[in-house]
Amino acid sequence: MKLFIAALGTETNTFSPIPTGRAAFLEDLYVETGASRTSDHWFAGPLKVWRTMGEAAGYAVVESLAAFAPPGGPTRQDVWVDLRDRVLADLRAAGPVDMVLFDLHGAMVAEEQDDCEGELVAAAREIVGKGVTVGVELDLHCHLSERIVAASDVLLTYKEYPHIDVDDRARDLFRLCDDARAGRIRPTIAVADCRMLAVWRTPNQPTRGFVDRMSAAEGRDGILSLSLAHGFPWADLPDVGAKVVAVTDGDPDLARATAEALARELWEMREATTDRLLTLDEAVQVALDPPAGVTVLADVSDNAGAGAASDSTFLLRALVEAGATRCAIGSFWDPVAVRLCREAGLGARLALRIGGKTGPMSGDPVDLAVRVIGIQADAVQTYGNGKQPMGDCVMVEAGGLHIVLNALRTQVFQPSAFEQFGVSLTDYATVFVKSAQHFNAGFAPRADRILHVAVTGSANPDFAALVLPRAGRPLWPIVADPFA
Ligand SMILES: [Zn+2]
């Protein structure tokens, strides 16, 4: 028996000013074969799972590309075509296979392709034919086109946001696809369109209960797998929006009814799952008059994990002007400032221009007299069971602020983004992180409270104000009732 595996992803924010070219993949994850044995990148985790489970089950494993770029603007067409054709050429070269498993994002857009993953999986289906089992694992921030569903035997998404279950879902996918290949089950997939744009934080109720009910229903009464594809709102595309995926054992009516019932449940929860977001002024007020303990404030609008630049200065400028103290803020994607600090050296004092370089949604640069208090070469953060590179990283002090800057654009995942410089979260009253939710896994156990701030940015969470003319149907909260 032969198993073919590949991993390819990025998350495309069609409003992002960041072009996604070849370097974005090369600097983050790009391994032409064998990433399951050589890479500790989190996105390669499913390949490790599938190699281990596949070999234990007696498959010869043929491993193709593992590539991931940080979320940004649309991928250059020539780069996409090269990545796609590399995977498809490997699949052809593998000869007859029994099973194909893809680890994809599901919100990758190229300059001339709205639905990269759908195109890839449909082309793979074309190559292997109808009788071969094709399984797809997606990030829950995916668009889920009809094409990718039609080309897959089993399709599921992560259930958790933060994505702490990437490898667990890879195990689910392997088991289901191995059962399908062996004829023990006959998976059938249905999708319900929720017509909603939102963020669901899965550690928080009532979303926690929704996810737990999905998990509890799996493996009984003919239900094989349930996923809530949260969708990725910052993409003007026909498939944008949340969807529920139900996979049943040979029962399309049950799949459809289950998916639709969950979609209705999600709709009923909409008010309770809507975030309370602070304004910039409210956030500064928290820093000026901090409650006891450590408060973490997430600058969700500048989340690199949603394709934002991660160099916006709106909050930094306001904190400086207000004279806030005992604050940490980061991480600013500013390779030039990092370079200047490294050259100046540890302990050096210099005039530093920070952030505000990428475009109008980043604000203007902030000029500060700083002291370099930490330098780390090739910093990494843990993310789930894997790693995410930060590049060279520095911490500078200016007044009562500690500011982290890094050279490879990424969000803050862990307190280590600050604590790698020998400080502790408890040194601060207020910690501002450029992230929307992934930081939660590492910070929640150590923070006294977590708040979210919305300012200008390419990942601004004011979904009612999103302009999505290509969505092709009404979406909440742009309209009050998208089914009216
Ligand atoms: Zn995601």
From TrEMBL:
Binds 1 zinc ion per subunit. Residues 297-466 form the Microcystin LR degradation protein MlrC C-terminal domain. GO terms for molecular function: metal ion binding; metallopeptidase activity. Signal peptide: none annotated. It comes from the Bacteria. It comes from Methylobacterium aquaticum. GO terms for biological process: proteolysis. Keywords: Hydrolase, Metal-binding, Metalloprotease, Plasmid, Protease. Involved in peptidolytic degradation of cyclic heptapeptide hepatotoxin microcystin (MC). This is Microcystinase C. Its cofactor is Zn(2+). Residues 2-287 form the Microcystin LR degradation protein MlrC N-terminal domain. InterPro entries: MlrC, MlrC_C, MlrC_N. Belongs to the peptidase M81 family.
